[in-house]
Structure formats: C-alpha cells, structure tokens
Amino acid sequence: MIDSHSHVLPGLDDGAENLSESVEIARLAVADGVTAMIATPHIRDDFNVAIGELPERVATLNGALDEADVEVEIHQGGEVAVYRLDDLDDDDLRAVSFGGESRYVLVETPYGSVPAGFEEALFRLALRGFNAVVAHPERSPSFQRRPERLTELVRRGILLQLTAGALSGAFGRSARDLAERLIARGEAHLLGSDVHHAYGSRASLRSARNALEGSGRAAIAAWMTEEVPAALLADAAPPPGPEPPPARRRRAWWRR
Question: Is the entire prediction scored with pTM above 0.90?
Fold first, then answer.
C-alpha cells in the first residue's frame, strides 16, 4: 500500500518530533503493509516549513530508514492550506506536489467552516495546471451539512482523500457517514493515514482497508490505497474506479 498522507518528516510541523520517531512511524507503517509514504508536512502560516529543504530532508529520512532496515520509501509532498495556494509560485507548488514533481497537490480542508472561496481557490489552482487532492473533507462540518459541494468538486476533476480513521468512527458518526457516502457514490479516490506520531491511538491504513474488504469492497480498497496513489506519484491520471457493490437492503421487520 501507499500512504498518501503522513507527517513523518521530523521537526517540521505537529508531526514527528525527531528522526527516531520518524523511523518508528515508518516501522509501524511497514507492519501494516505500507511500502511507500508521501511526506506531507503542513504548508501554512503556523509552521515555518522551508520548501527548498524538503528534498534534503526526505533524503535524510530515507537514509536513516535504510540504516535501520525499514523497508519503506518516503516521497516528497506537502499539505497546503488553501489560503497559501495563491502565495506559492509554480516551482514551490511542484515541490510540494505528490512526489515533488507532479501536478497533484494535497490541499488541507479547514476543520471549521469552509468558505465559498475554497472552491474558487481550487479552480484557480487548476488554471495554473495543477490538480487539487482535497484532504479529509469528511471531517468538515460544512461538507457534512452540504455534501453536494463535494459532488460538484469531483465533477470538475478534483480528487478527494479520506482519512483512515474516519471509517472506524474515530472522528465521529457524521465524518464516518460522509466518508461512507463518498465511497458508495464513487466520489472518494484515496485513503491516507494522516499519521502524526508513533505513540497514542492511531487508525492505520490497514484497519481502513480491512473494513472495506470485510464489507465486500476489496477492489475499492486496493484502488484507493494502491492504484490511485501510484498513478499520482507517476503524474498520471488515476485509473477508473471499480463499481461499488450494490447497497444492502434491510429486510422489513415482518419478514425477519
């Protein structure tokens, strides 16, 4: 599997605090069956991430993983606050894209209200030749109240990335319900762990995939955790998604 959302680079944001923790995060990911992780540090005003240093930082972590015999490859990326999109030039946007050299840019969904300007910023990004991948939209109360906003984004070519923990209910019933709705409608494209630390409770990519496989959606699970992230890393369009299985109808009480 490819983890398309992680804060595994040390000392940059609210993720891994040091190199030792980064190695342990990666070790846990390997135990889950992850073979590659996209490092997506926050690109926003409350963290001073030097975009030009990302290649060196990724190389340093990959070197440490080689020394520790942890078989996972870290790829360059970033999680960009929507208000920063217009501030970054094309070179910086490319540097924080999937793999550090693609058209796909992970854009953070605000945890509070999502203003109408959110969509407009994504469309301006598209005019510059980049394609937004919206991170954890299922956790936003704005989108939970109006999921049709996400339907319109997908119709216009935006990709949606769900957080693994949403499927287990880690972020509440509303987030889980929206995540399930998006998957059922074929409007969700990737799963990411959004892992920050090696300690504390965590919902792994494996647990989310197991949940999908256990409900008859193994093809969707593989598509979201293998096929789509691999395509984005290669700067290619995502392959068509599998057809969701038909919804199970609940039997009427008088037929039970």
Answer: yes
